[in-house]
Amino acid sequence: MAKGRTVVLQHFLAFYLRRRKLFTRSACILILYFTFNSGSSSKRRRKHGVSNKNKRYLSADVCTFKNPFTRLVYKLKHSPTVLLFSRLAFAKRKNTSKILSYFGAQMALLVAKAIFTLKEASLDGALVSSMVSKEFRQFFKFLAFWLLLGIPSSITSSLIKKCQGMLAESIRESITESILDDYLPDSGNSTLYQMVNQSRVADTSTSSVLSSKSASTSPDRSRSHSLTDVTNPNNIITTTVEELSQSMAILPFQLFDPILDIMLAGNRLSEVSKYASEGSLLLGVVANISTLLLKVFTPNFAALSSTHNTLENMFHTYHSQIIDHREEIALSRGHRRELDMLDASYFESERFQRLEMRRMAVYNFAVGFIFKYGLGAFGLMLCSFPVFTTAYLANFQIERKLVAKLASDFFANRRLLMSASDSLGRLILSKKTINNSIGYSTSLWEFDSILKDINNASKNVLDDHNDDRLISGPNVSYGNEISFVHVPLVTPSGNVLAEDLNFSIKPGQNMLVIGPNGCGKSSLFRILGGLWEVLDPGKVTVPSSRRDLFYLPQRSYLTYGSLREQILYPDSMDDYRLKLVATKKSMGSVVKDDNYLIDLLQLVHLEYLLGQNEDEDSKEEDTDDDDIETYSIGSSTGDTEKLSGLDAVKKWPDLLSVGEQQRLALARLYYHQPKFAVLDECTSSISPDLEKECYRMAIERFGITVLSVCHRTSLWQFHSYILKFNRQDDVAAATTIFTKFDPDKRLKRHQELIEVEAALKKDDDLTTRLESLKKMQLRGGRRAKLMYIGDD
Ligand SMILES: Nc1ncnc2c1ncn2[C@@H]1O[C@H](COP(=O)(O)OP(=O)(O)OP(=O)(O)O)[C@@H](O)[C@H]1O
Predict the structure, then answer these.
(1) Domain ranges for the chain
(2) How far apart are the CA of 228 and the centre of ligand 1, in A?
């Protein structure tokens, strides 16, 4: 009876042996398929409120594709990762070839690595076999081979790492280049201003033609815009691009290395072991059960990384805010309040990180145990199977030579199966990297879409492709003047500041703009600078070229760079050199060389900046260890702190007082010598005498026509026209009056008012005169003294 059962079993085994290759390969495919389809289920994603980000980009008609292949192609074509790579990373041929070559090199190295692993496994087996059969010469021969194999194998591993680094760097370079081209476009469009502004304005649809245009052209994009925090573009451009590049660079390794390992191991097993087919099939089933089991321990990676990023961003933003306002905080002793905010933000972030670590610890344990030990144990069983079956079939009468062969196979197979089970674990972990990459690329794609929408909308309003235009649009015309006719002044959030703005200024007619705080004085210049649109029925006439209008705000913008660069801004050093060559060629015109720049500094009494070549930074640098190779950041000239004069590179915004910064900005204005200049309280911190001198210089010496907002009466004398904003307390929109301005007359009346007010206390006869003056004030609005000015 027992003999009959043995015969049946032997026939059964023989049948499987004939089909072993087929079984092995189908088992491999099963393993890969089920492993890859594991992870967080869509049900759980929905429960956590995190949808598959990819799906946002797929319109409803994707469901109409019956053919799964067409559907897959459609999905791929619309996936943000593919879009991001096709339009940003591969935007330039040079970058494309770099990325593809590093990717190709990495793939080739991965294949080489897998082949070396196979060879090592065979050598392991051979070593054990020679040891068991006591063939010492063979043993040392194999040992030498094994050592030799270690050289190319180690080189390959190190080259893979290097390739990953280079791939990450080229992806980052390429995406950063493309995003920066949209972020600060050559056309001079105020994309960054509009993007941050739009996201801060709650109701963008009211007045922003830009947003409505972009919404109408791409509904999917406008819907997704709200998902990206564009108020923090620095984080997206630095951190997100870096993280995406890193994860995309390690993806080929994480994905293809285990797949190659599994495939090669399966193939090898089917060749070397007679009974590997059943084992491989069973291994496929066990791998499937394991991945199902792993789902229980898998956290929602997308939700985790999104919350993590939000909390980190918040902490980062608080820090930047404190650094930006360090002086105000220090003077107002606001430390405790700021510390509370930082503590709260850090505590929140840390609490979440602990939760994240707990979830990841459980997940890592599950991956480690299930795949390394669970599948590893199964692999050992599988390897021992040929030993037991051979022994069983030969009725446990095995020759010595066969024992050595079985031992060799056992070790080779065990090694391959252990590495295959480990590879399965890595394959599962690679899903995390894929999800992260999708998350990062979605954020980046949304961000770039917003930039592109803004730039495209601006292009639509352009009547020609002249990038040098000051502003463009259907309501804009060009001439030798600045004029506003029936222009409504409306904020991006739809607040009407002034319904009907009218004025006209020709060269030489300097205009004073006055009005209460928040009435829209600076907003007028936002229209003039192209930041806000000229809405219907308004018509604006401006000089055609950007160079004809210069804007100086109250807090002037200084860059980190040389003193010369502060004066030249926004010109670059190349622009400066070109201008120098041009003026030298054209005989007779003033050559704006370094001596000219020094003269300008003298005009604003800043010549002492030329002599400052020692500061604390340089002293700090002296203490640096000479042996350490240091890099000069922000300058190609090397030892920047030793430079002096116009070449001195310093942290000018931190080094100069507000008044000094304003004077430096005036030197900048003199250098550019525009036709018109907007001076928006740009001299408020300069002493009155020097302020007057600077104004006189701008108007008389450099022939600049100024449109100025200033509260000091000492500057009235430079203006011949006045634009006055009147706002009643109960009406949001201001009315405006534009008239000729006689500074002497107005000053006299202003002085008179002061004197009458003083005399009133003593003399009743002046009451009548005061009443008449008060009437005029009331007509002018609530800011009595200011409204008096310019009232005829
Ligand atoms: N980007 C913007 N989006 C929405 N509202 C804005 C924006 N910029 C300014 N405003 C609003 O427009 C109004 C006018 O601002 P503006 O800067 O023109 O005032 P101002 O007359 O120059 O005041 P001040 O004399 O205090 O400088 C303010 O209420 C301000 O909140």
Answers:
(1) 2-460, 470-556+674-740, 559-624+631-655, 742-792
(2) 26
